[in-house]
Amino acid sequence: MPAYSRGTSTNIIVGAAALFVADATLNTTTNAIPSFVSTESYKSTLSADPDYTNVGYTMNGIELQFQPDFGEVQVDQVLDVAKLYKQGMQVNLATTFAEATLENLLLATAGQDSDLTGSKSTSNGRVLNLSAGDIGECPVERGIVAVGPGTGDCEDSGNVERVYVAYRALSIENVTVSAKRDEASMFEVSFRLLPDDLTATYGKIVDRTHTAS
What we know:
Oligomer: single chain
Largest sheet: 8 strands, antiparallel
Mean pLDDT: 91
Structural class: mainly beta
Radius of gyration: 21 Å
Order of helices and strands: EHEEEHEEEEEE
Number of domains: 1
Helix content: under 10%
């Protein structure tokens, strides 16, 4: 039998993740995430893919929240419930975009790509049209991939990473845009994750090691 150990410190993860937003929803087959390359970090793989946007700096990292909903069965002979059954599930991903670009605001407000036009280098500038939308308009869903530190030995920690993949994400919470004298403009955003139609999964989490120096 193995000797008792208090724990494994190399399994403790500390550090922020790089957040990428896909132009469209993801799944396991028809629009899968780019393949892993053994000789490079997945951050480099996604940065080279034109279908993914790096949101840049974030504040307070990312937070995945799983909220199961259970129903109860009560019987006369037991004061507490006799049985619990799962009747619902909700998964959310929350973060704060620290770079107050119009591109990030478009993502935070679940806007259409066509709402963002122009260029800052022209006299008319870069314009984000704040559209009210139409009745029955389909909400904008996008895929999300975050790449952060993983578990492993300290010497190899730079080559170990954890990849978080959300196939379908919708921004559903209020987004505040501010301009304050003593506070940076940031966009707090909460994404509601929906399961993929093909596999009924929200996404996946991958621990991997690459060989890039």
